[in-house]
Write a structure and sequence with these properties.
Elements (H helix, E strand, L loop, with lengths): L3 E5 L3 E4 L4 H12 L4 E4 L10 H14 L7 E7 L6 H9 L3 E6 L19 H10 L3 E4 L12 H16 L5 E4 L4 H8 L5 E5 L8 H5 L16 H11 L6 E3 L8 H4 L14 H11 L6 H13 L7 E6 L8 E2 L6 E2 L9 E3 L1
Parallel strand pairs: 2-3, 3-4, 4-5, 5-6, 6-7, 7-8, 8-9
Antiparallel strand pairs: 1-10, 10-13, 11-12
Helix pairs in contact: 3-4
């Protein structure tokens, strides 16, 4: 039985750090284990220009504890007014690694997102030309579409047409939650990848609703049926280079999670590596953990893998803090509902 595993230091290819007091509180939770992360741009106001991305990067680095190393990989928030030349310049400078597509109203702070996809065609064509990836929040927001069907409908109505009309556009389907998403990625061997979150490997929709509403399991895209969770787990543990880790760790204060209209998001930065080791061990796929966390993502984003390593060891139960304190209020750490025995040494 394996009790120790050394892998290249992982990266997180989908992360929310927020700003201000929340940034100060949660950044160390990621930087403790992760070398790099794709930083989501859905602040208020959103990060839409190269200059704004540079300013946000500087804020992140200023908040980083002096004894930690971490590289924020910046993104731009795609709007119907985004300037293709600004996107190209930000990419050419090495600052911006992707552009994020939020359908308007799909999730937290997405009101500035895209309503009319024809209005962003010039940006997408420029991105295809320069090889800059498009990260997509893959849900439609039509009122007549059931929330559990939004991802599958997005693939058919939005994503597939975008890819067909923009040859060469490199796309990351972020935080896929369905077997439909898995199957779509597996049916294309070029210019398409997908991130899978930690929490979507662990919870299904019953965890949110059975026995009472669990606000700290509520996320967008919402967790789906068990059959979809199992499809995600199979994809993540397969070693397939098209699938890689994007935690979508999303901090909200308890007050904002537990209110009458609570915010969507699970905060997993603190214990993700322990959670993943447990799930990969259960799937008899510990030998595939490094590919999922440390190799496949860099390959898609065309950056070097990390030279540093981390070692995970299995032993007595690991006890993580239940909350991370910030001056805005406490943030609850994701609880998988089962003991954790793997830790980063």
């Amino acid at each position: 039985m394996t009790h120790s595993l050394t892998i290249r230091r992982p990266d997180d290819w989908h992360l929310h750090l927020r700003d201000g007091a929340m940034l100060q509180a949660v950044l160390p939770e990621t930087a403790r284990h992760f070398a790099r992360a794709i930083i989501m741009p859905n602040l208020v106001p959103p990060v839409v220009t190269g200059d704004q991305a540079a300013a946000y990067r500087d804020c992140i680095l200023a908040a980083l504890p002096g004894d930690m190393t971490f590289e924020p990989l910046m993104t731009l928030y795609l709007t119907e007014d985004t300037d293709p030349a600004d996107v190209a310049a930000a990419h050419a400078s090495g600052l911006v690694k992707a552009v994020k597509l939020y359908p308007a109203g799909a999730t937290t702070n997405s009101s500035s997102g895209v309503h009319n996809f024809d209005k962003v065609r010039a940006v997408l064509e420029k991105m295809a030309e320069i090889g800059l990836p498009l990260c997509v929040h893959g849900e439609v927001t039509d009122a007549d579409i059931d929330i559990f069907d939004r991802e599958a409908v997005f693939i058919d109505r939005v994503l597939d047409p975008i890819r067909k009309t923009t040859p060469g556009l490199r796309v990351v389907m972020e935080h896929i939650t369905t077997s439909n998403g898995v199957d779509y990625v597996k049916s294309h061997d070029k210019d398409l990848g997908a991130t899978i979150t930690t929490h979507h490997l662990i919870i299904n929709r019953n965890h949110i609703l059975v026995g009472g509403i669990k606000p700290h399991y509520y996320c967008l895209p919402v967790a789906k049926r068990e059959e979809h969770r199992l499809a995600l787990l199979t994809a993540a543990t397969s070693g397939d280079a098209r699938f890689f880790l994007g935690t979508d760790s999303a901090p909200h204060t308890d007050a904002n999670k537990e209110m009458a209209c609570g915010c969507a998001g699970c905060f997993t930065a603190t214990n993700t590596m322990s959670l993943l080791a447990e799930m990969f061990e259960r799937a008899e796929a510990l030998d595939k953990l490094e590919a999922f966390t440390s190799i496949n993502g860099p390959a898609f984003y065309r950056v070097p893998v990390n030279e540093e390593t981390i070692t995970l060891t299995k032993g007595e139960e690991v006890v993580y803090p239940t909350k991370i304190e910030s001056s805005d209020g406490p943030v609850t750490v994701f609880d998988p509902g089962f003991p954790l025995h793997w830790r980063v040494a």
